[in-house]
User: Fold Very-long-chain (3R)-3-hydroxyacyl-CoA dehydratase from Meripilus lineatus.
Amino acid sequence: MGDMMRGRGISHLACLWQLPVRVLVSSNPPHRFDLGSREVVPRLFMAHIEEVHEQRPKPQATPKKKKGPPPVVKFYLVVYNVLSALGWSYVLLGTIVTLLDSDWARSSNQPIVILASKLASLLPQATTKVIRPRAYRWLENYLPVFIVDVVRRATNVYSRIGIQTAIIQSFASLEILHALFGWVGSSPITTGVQVWTRLEAVWGIAYLFPQTQTNPIYASMVLSWSITEVIRYTFYALTLVGYQSPLLLYLRYTTFYLLYPTGASSEAFLILSSLPSSGPGSYSLHDWLRASFFVIWWPGLYVLYNHMIKQRRKVLGGGKGRTLGQKPKTL
Assistant:
């Protein structure tokens, strides 16, 4: 009867834990009970129940596929990026043909030069009186003639495409809403800062201060912007329709090495050229504000430049989990 009870007790414990058990009998029983003339060694207390955990393979979690924007939003983003790419292509072409518009270009027999000259004739003609600072006149004595010609023609870029550039850049304000609504993966704060700096350059500086409109630095700024944006918007539009271009992907995350410094430094020096030449003693509140922008532009460029370097490592395979040609995580 005792053995039966002990067996039932162990089986009940096994059922309670619902685990396989192994009964280990100790050679030195821990407890003895003296019941009259009989000494009972309860084997139940000598038994140690050891859990045996089964090694069951864990089910692999299926990665959740990130949902894209709704069809209507996707169509809108495709149209927006295509139109933006076309707009910046106009700015890029206008800048190039203005820089190539010279007596040599008009007399050349090269087809590409002839095409550029014809396109230049379609652009608005320069009407702003060119005022070259003394420093430029001094540099002209030391620079090669062809560079001097390009610098002189660069003073006409604003007269031909300045307002158009400002309008096209203004449409980029929609990208802040795209980020706020979650239609793209960009940060609203980062996007807002980048858009604001561009708008400050085209409306707050170039539009308000005529001396900046004939500054060759304006041409270098717009040239850097337009090359960057044509690549970026074309890349985004093709990505939205499911086409991956390794060439565009490489250009998107490589050209910034040159275009970010030239673009941002041109913005900064354009701001500097808007300040009164009489010196800080005659600065107004707005002048001091622009002077502070010139100072903070450089650490901003440093932060953005390093951010793009990190992004390049992730996207082009130098970082973790990405290789050249893979679909980017965000737009």
Residues 285-315 form the longest helix (31 residues). The chain has two domains: 2-49, 71-275+284-315. The CA atoms of residues 217 and 269 lie 7 Å apart. Confidence is low (pLDDT under 50) at residues 13-27, 37-53, 126-131, 321-326.
